[in-house]
């Protein structure tokens, strides 16, 4: 089976040979080909090379577009600073000193520099690999993008002080994310990931009142395009699981502080669980034998559908033998 066939079979409940491997590679992939992280984030050709080489060398079933949270933000008019080492920075969020949404530019995924870079990443994967790998596109979730535009601390205050304004801002973010997702699906992405990390930092009530309805609208729109949807919320989402259970997801990333069996009980049994090994202590600082055993035990514990993944990004500096162990074929169990 190809990686894409294996991945789709798992999501559809069809027979397959072994469990798909979908670890998140960003700085690790750049380091693997000797590229700076700034060029990995800003030049789609470097990102494509890093991810394809990593997929070939480590046995991944998926290639993706992830690198940092500021792709859409640049389209709204923000200046993004690229670094040789470390995540790009946005020194001045477009709304850091104003609540006037008219100050925001309107991003066009086929014209805005960084969004087009992502679309070109997807297109290049499709041209170079065909159907060998699943291709993962990505958009920022409504709360995550709103926080990027306003500044994290200020947005968290806004959620309490001015919920209607936050809702208006997030609606605009969803409108843009839908068109950004559409451009990636048209370019060849079979799955769109949604990163909404800031959601783990709010109360269940705030999440269900303000953020969840926008995630629902975004996910329904992506599903209507014929793509799978993967949700990634870093951190402890235990208190959000009842709300997340209402989302029509195909895949959810589970961070290491969340109990996988609880997620399995709460969510639709057809949702694939990806994770949830601690990226630092369970991957970077672990041993191949311990990694193999952990993945085997997790799979036995929660069953299908399951995808091999760490709780979040594979850290730079992870020993090659550790990532090889994570991606070692795990036989499919009916």
Describe this structure in words.
The chain is about 50% helix and about 10% strand. With about 325 residues, it is α/β, with parallel strands linked by helices. It has a single domain (about 5-325), classed as TIM Barrel (Alpha-Beta Barrel), CATH 3.20.20.210. It has a 7-stranded parallel β-sheet with strand order 1-2-3-4-5-6-7. The longest helix has 25 residues, at about 165-185. It starts with a helix and ends in an 8-residue tail after the last helix.
Provide key terms for this protein.
334 residues, 49% helix, TIM Barrel, alpha/beta, 7-stranded parallel beta sheet
Helix and strand composition category: alpha/beta
Largest sheet data = 7 strands, parallel
CATH class: Alpha Beta
User: Architecture, according to CATH?
Assistant: Alpha-Beta Barrel
Strand content: 5-15%
Low-pLDDT runs: none
Short description:
With 334 residues, the chain is of the alpha/beta class. It is 49% helix and 9% strand. The protein has one domain (3-326): TIM Barrel (Alpha-Beta Barrel).
Write the layout of secondary structure elements.
Layout (H helix, E strand, L loop, with lengths): L2 H10 L14 H6 L4 H6 L1 H15 L3 E3 L6 H5 L37 H17 L4 E7 L1 H9 L1 H10 L1 H25 L3 E5 L8 H21 L3 E5 L8 H4 L6 E4 L5 H7 L5 E4 L3 H6 L3 H15 L3 E2 L12 H7 L8
Parallel strand pairs: 1-2, 2-3, 3-4, 4-5, 5-6, 6-7
Helix pairs in contact: 4-6, 6-9, 7-8, 7-9, 9-10, 14-15
């Amino acid at each position: 089976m190809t990686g894409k066939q294996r991945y789709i079979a798992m999501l559809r409940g069809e027979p397959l040979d072994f469990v798909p491997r979908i670890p998140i590679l960003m700085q690790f992939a750049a380091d693997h080909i000797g590229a700076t992280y700034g060029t990995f984030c800003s030049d789609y050709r470097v990102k494509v090379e890093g991810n394809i080489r990593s997929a070939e060398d480590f046995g991944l079933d998926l290639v993706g577009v992830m690198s940092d949270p500021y792709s859409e933000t640049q389209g709204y008019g923000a200046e993004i600073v690229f670094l040789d080492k470390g995540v790009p920075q946005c020194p001045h969020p477009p709304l850091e000193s104003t609540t006037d949404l008219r100050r925001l530019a309107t991003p066009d995924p086929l014209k805005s520099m960084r969004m087009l870079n992502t679309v070109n990443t997807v297109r290049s994967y499709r041209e170079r690999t065909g159907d060998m790998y699943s291709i993962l596109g990505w958009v920022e979730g409504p709360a995550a993008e709103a926080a990027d535009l306003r500044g994290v601390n200020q947005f968290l205050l806004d959620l309490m002080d001015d919920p209607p304004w936050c809702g208006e801002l997030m609606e605009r973010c969803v409108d843009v994310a839908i068109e950004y997702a559409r451009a990636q699906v048209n370019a060849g992405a079979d799955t769109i990931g949604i990163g909404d990390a800031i959601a783990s930092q709010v109360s269940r009530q705030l999440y269900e009142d303000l953020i969840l309805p926008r995630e629902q609208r975004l996910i329904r729109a992506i599903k209507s395009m014929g793509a799978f949807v993967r949700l990634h919320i870093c951190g402890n989402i235990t208190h959000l699981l009842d709300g997340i259970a209402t989302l029509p997801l195909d895949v959810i990333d589970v961070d290491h502080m969340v109990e996988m069996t609880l997620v399995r009980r709460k969510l639709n049994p057809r949702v694939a669980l990806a994770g949830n090994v601690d990226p630092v202590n369970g991957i970077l600082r672990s041993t191949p034998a311990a990694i193999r055993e952990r993945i085997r035990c997790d799979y036995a514990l929660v069953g299908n559908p399951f995808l091999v993944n760490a709780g979040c990004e594979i850290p730079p500096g992870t020993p090659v033998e550790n990532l090889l162990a994570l991606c070692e074929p795990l036989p499919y169990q009916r």
